[in-house]
Write a structure and sequence with these properties.
The chain has a domain of 242 residues: 3-Layer(aba) Sandwich (Rossmann fold). Helix content is 39%, strand content 16%. The protein has 13 helices and 15 strands. Strands 3-2-1-4-5-7-12 form a seven-stranded parallel sheet, sandwiched between helices. A two-stranded parallel sheet has the order 6-15. α3 links the parallel β4 and β5.
């Protein structure tokens, strides 16, 4: 088992939980964290970790913070690492969907993958490299349960294009690599409204619309972040790997859009007015209120895709299936005000 793991993206949704999962396993973690100084980087990471249900001050003794930036050669580390890690878990990513932000997305996700490969070759050539991608690199064929061998297809945007290219860079590196593709990841167990609304801001907007152009029967594959992080940690620490590509997903236990809406409305009655009406065109006024940001989500919601998780569950039998999304989505939606949703939706 790896004794020393380097993690990028530790202040993000997934990366912070991965650090805590590894620390709980007794592993020494080096967290490459952005910050103008070592003190700032350390404080940023501590602030993030303290929001988790799994945080305890004792775990900080397992974590070393290095001020760095994955968009820079060598991850911007000066001087380089004194002790090479046994494993590198690359969680750092720009998850913006907007094509207007494609240059920034490409710099973080594709440039970051290039720097990851160069860094591993120079400083840890024998380390396992765990690259956290996204299941949404494939969104077709619609209405299917797709496995890891399904070719890239379906709707794409700046984010998914960048992740496809980044996967290709990592896979072709000749290093000891494994690609992990989480489905939609939500912030169960994290006390932070901003992380809750990073995706779920769309729900209050839908309430304002009333009718939404989404099929009620379309499945939405969702996993909680604590489950996702534990899967990533287990893959990182496994002595050997039967496969080099895994989905982290709900798979056939994914629930439909209507099931999710019904669960939200049961806990938050003010959301009972949302009516999924399928892909029929909405009025010009409704489309104007949707605005472009919400339109970025509709192809994913209507794809009716479930990502097979048989491979992960077969190779890691202790992991088990994730909790049903209806058990935690309502409580996350309850954290989001309409004002917060409106602020979030105008972000790129």
């Amino acid at each position: 088992m790896a004794q020393r793991v380097l993690v990028t993206g530790g202040t993000g949704l997934i990366g912070g939980e991965v650090i805590l999962a590894l620390a709980r396993a007794g592993v020494r973690v080096t967290a490459v964290t952005r910050g103008g100084s070592q003190a700032i980087a350390s404080q940023r990471l501590r602030d993030r970790l303290q929001k988790s249900q799994w945080f305890s001050p004792e775990l900080l003794g397992q974590v070393e913070v290095l001020a760095g930036d994955t968009t820079l050669p060598g991850f911007g580390l000066t001087p380089p690492l004194e002790i090479p890690p046994d494993c590198i878990v690359h969680c750092a990513a720009n998850t913006q969907f907007s094509d207007r932000e494609e240059d920034d997305v490409w710099r973080t996700n594709v440039g970051g993958a290039e720097h990851l490969v160069a860094f591993a070759r120079a400083h840890a050539p024998r380390a396992r490299v765990v690259f956290v991608s996204t299941a949404s690199v494939t969104t077709g064929p619609e209405g299917a349960v797709v496995n890891e061998d399904t070719a890239f297809q379906g709707y794409e945007n700046a984010y998914t294009r960048s992740k496809r290219q980044a996967e290709a860079i990592v896979t072709a590196s000749g290093l000891d690599t494994v690609i992990l593709r989480p489905a939609i990841v939500l912030s169960r167990g994290i006390d932070d409204a901003a992380m809750a609304r990073s995706i779920l801001w769309a729900v209050p907007i839908m309430r304002e619309l009333g009718e939404v152009p989404v099929s009620p029967d379309s499945h939405i594959d969702i996993v909680p972040v604590d489950y996702t992080a534990q899967c990533i940690a287990d893959v990182a620490l496994a002595p050997s790997l039967p496969h080099r590509l895994y989905h982290i997903s709900a798979g056939t236990t994914s629930q439909s859009f209507k099931q999710l809406l019904d669960a939200v409305a049961a806990e938050c009655p003010e959301f009972k007015g949302i009516a999924p009406v399928g892909r029929k065109p909405l009025s010009k006024r409704a489309m104007a209120r949707l605005m472009r940001p919400l339109e970025n989500y509709l192809p994913f919601m209507n794809a009716d895709i479930r990502y097979a998780n048989d491979r992960l569950l077969g190779d890691f039998t202790a992991i088990g299936i994730p909790a049903l999304a209806t058990s935690y989505v309502p409580s996350l939606v309850a954290l989001i005000s309409l004002a917060d949703a409106l602020t979030e939706m105008v972000r790129p």
